Amino acid sequence: MEGNLFMKKLSSAQIRQMYLDFFKSKGHDVLKSAPLVPQDDPTLLWINSGVATMKKYFDGSVVPKNHRLTSSQKSIRTNDIENVGHTARHHTLFEMLGNFSVGDYFKKEAITWAWELLTSPDWYGMDPEKLYITVYPKDQDSKKILEKVGVAPTHIFEAEDNFWDIGQGPSGPDSEIFYDRGQEMNNLAEDDPESYPGGENERYLEIWNIVFSEFNHKPDNTYEPLPHKNIDTGMGLERLVSVFQNAKTNFETDLFMPLIQKTADFSNGYQYGQDKATDVSFKVIADHIRAITFAIGDGALPSNDGRGYVIRRLIRRAVMHGRKLGIENAFLYKLVPVVGEIMKSAYPEVLDQADYIGKVVRDEENRFNVTLKDGMELMDNLIQATKQNGQDTIAGKPVFKLYDTYGFPVELTEEYADDNGLKVDHAGFEKEMKAQKDRARAARSDAKSMGVQDALLTDIKTPSEYVGYDTLAAAGVLKDIIVKDKILDKIADGRARMIFSQTPFYAEMGGQVADTGVIKDCLGNVVAEVTDVQHAPNGQNLHTVEVKSTMVSGEEYQLEVDVKRHNKIKKNHTATHLLDQALRDVLGEHAHQAGSLVEPTYLRFDFTNMGNVTPEQLTQVEQIVNEKIWANIAVTTTVTDIESAKKMGAIALFSEKYGDVVRVVSAGDYSREFCGGNHVDNTSEIGLFKIISESGIGAGTRRIEAVTAREAFEYLEGQNNLLQTAAIDLKIAKTKDVPVKVESLLEKVKQLENKVQSLEDRFASQQAANVWGNVQIVGKHSIVAEQVNVSGMNQLRQLADQWKAKKISDVLILATQTDDGKVNLLTAMSTACVKEGLKAGDLIKKIAPLVGGGGGGRPDLAQAGGKKPAGISDALKQGVQWLENQENN
Question: In terms of domains, do 708 and 614 share one?
Answer without folding.
Answer: yes
